[in-house]
Amino acid sequence: MEFRQLEYFVAVVETGSISAASRRVHIAQPALTRQMQLLEEGLGTPLLDRHARGVRLTVAGRMLYSEATRLLDERVDIKARLLALGSGQTGKLSLGVTVTHLWVPEVAKLMRGYRERYPQVALDVFTLLSGPQLEKLQQGGLDAGILYHDDHVPSGIEARLLQRDHLVLAVPASSSWVQSPPRRLVDLAETEFIWGYRSVSPVYYDRMVAHFARLNFEPRVVQYGADNITILSMISAGLGVAIVPAASSSHPTPGVRFIELEELTTCDMPLWLAWRAGEVSPVLDNFIQMAVEMFV
Amino acid sequence: MEFRQLEYFVAVVETGSISAASRRVHIAQPALTRQMQLLEEGLGTPLLDRHARGVRLTVAGRMLYSEATRLLDERVDIKARLLALGSGQTGKLSLGVTVTHLWVPEVAKLMRGYRERYPQVALDVFTLLSGPQLEKLQQGGLDAGILYHDDHVPSGIEARLLQRDHLVLAVPASSSWVQSPPRRLVDLAETEFIWGYRSVSPVYYDRMVAHFARLNFEPRVVQYGADNITILSMISAGLGVAIVPAASSSHPTPGVRFIELEELTTCDMPLWLAWRAGEVSPVLDNFIQMAVEMFV
DNA sequence: AAAATCCATACCAATATGATATGGATAGCA
DNA sequence: TGCTATCCATATCATATTGGTATGGATTTT
User: Fold this and answer.
1) Fold of B167-267
2) Shortest CA gap B206–chain A (Å)
3) Residue in chain A nearest B56 by alpha carbon
4) Is residue B296's pLDDT more than 80?
5) Is the CB of A37 under 7 A from strand C?
6) Cα-based torsion angle of the residue sequence A100, A105, A108, A113 in order, rounded to the nearest 10 degrees
7) C-alpha B21: how far from chain center
8) What architecture (CATH level 2) is domain B3-86?
9) Do domains A3-86 and A167-267 have the same CATH topology?
């Protein structure tokens, strides 16, 4: 029982004769006769009663006809679904983003644009900091992530540079620094700092610390915060100042002012789109392409 | 997308490599490689990621794998069901029987035997007299019928002789004929007869009437009855005597006595198994064969 | 009785499928 | 860092399957 034979058989049933069917499927009548014989032989049961005016179905033939049409319909349906999957029109994409970068206009635009262009794809977004994102990527929990990293992405991970971010000083709106901004980091030697944990974004942390080491600056840390939102809230509450990604300023936070300092602008913080190497599904491929276009 | 390719694909998925699968399906590795290429080409989407250690499924491949196993399972299932249908193990058989002959031991034994041997066949029994049975047979409402007929079965109907029945006289148990049975039909010239309608069993009626015409016997009919059961009930009620098929006596009826008369025994009433010509389904074929065996 | 259909068979051509030989790539190992 | 084993891909040839042409037998229609 082959698909071709089923197609022929359906044509025979629907035209009522082997001759008529042979015209419909564009093969010669003896060839079709032979295929019907092979089909019956392969199934071990007669399907057609041959008469001088054409053929009629046996009971078995009647059953096969309904099954055959169903199987053939399913075949085209499966093909269509495979095509949709293969071209990335349908599927699932788990994306990690740092909280901070959900605010960045280009990231929001990318997500809106992708969902508009590929409405059938389930785009699941997880807000995670860079460290957990990398972990989940490697474990397969995420398909892609938007995260900070240096040029040395771990083996098994591929990445594409989206943006070069840098750092800014964030101070309470009530702070005197708003009126008379500091010129250099040393001006902040006595100021109380809020600081982050290394574990949630090791690369970000290490790059920042290395940068300050080069500048011989060591902040007076009085408070720690788990993530950028927490830290900004603390600043707003007047608990201290902090050094945060410049991307934070895309999303104005009440009670917080951002101050650019030359020594912070030179701290390069590359933002990457990362994914597991060698496992680029069509859905992911489309996403990467759209990201590349959106970030020039 | 052909069944063969799906089988190969499933083997590739389950062994994890084209080489291993080629061993499992007993073809050479390059042939299998080519079939996988053809499958992907035909579906328009990649299914396998080729690596040095084997292959891995793409998202589309994962979908196809589940569909493929299902389709292949369905294929064997369909074949099995077709075989059952084609061999008459499953299906439906609408059988007509005259009320009288449900009582005949051989008929009951045939039906019990058939249902025991082919428990998966739905055997629908309709109790109809010979005339309606023939009509329903021709219209397709019945697949087979057990009925009286002469040798000239209508065109389009095939039949096989089961039994030669004859006639008997049925009288009320209270009748004086029980004590002193009649020798000849003429003895019954003055007796009140219950008679049947021609329409419900024309051949039976005509043969009987022709037989009596030859004997120059004309009964004094005082009452008509639609079928044999009705007539026997009327006899039991003392409404008259009747001439009925000898088969009736297989099933003793309270208040009725059966009397054999030589002139009635010689009235040949052949009982046939009849069906539509040229449309012998396997189920029907089995039934006919069993009937033939049972009636020697 | 002749013509028109329809299915089956016989035989040949075209196409599809599979086998063998071989090469390139990669992971594992010394 | 080579070496080896493994795996997939390609090229070429053989074989099997499928389809075409010619023809015949059976049956219905005219």
Assistant:
1) D-Maltodextrin-Binding Protein; domain 2 (3.40.190)
2) 36
3) A279
4) no
5) yes
6) -160
7) 49
8) Orthogonal Bundle (1.10)
9) no
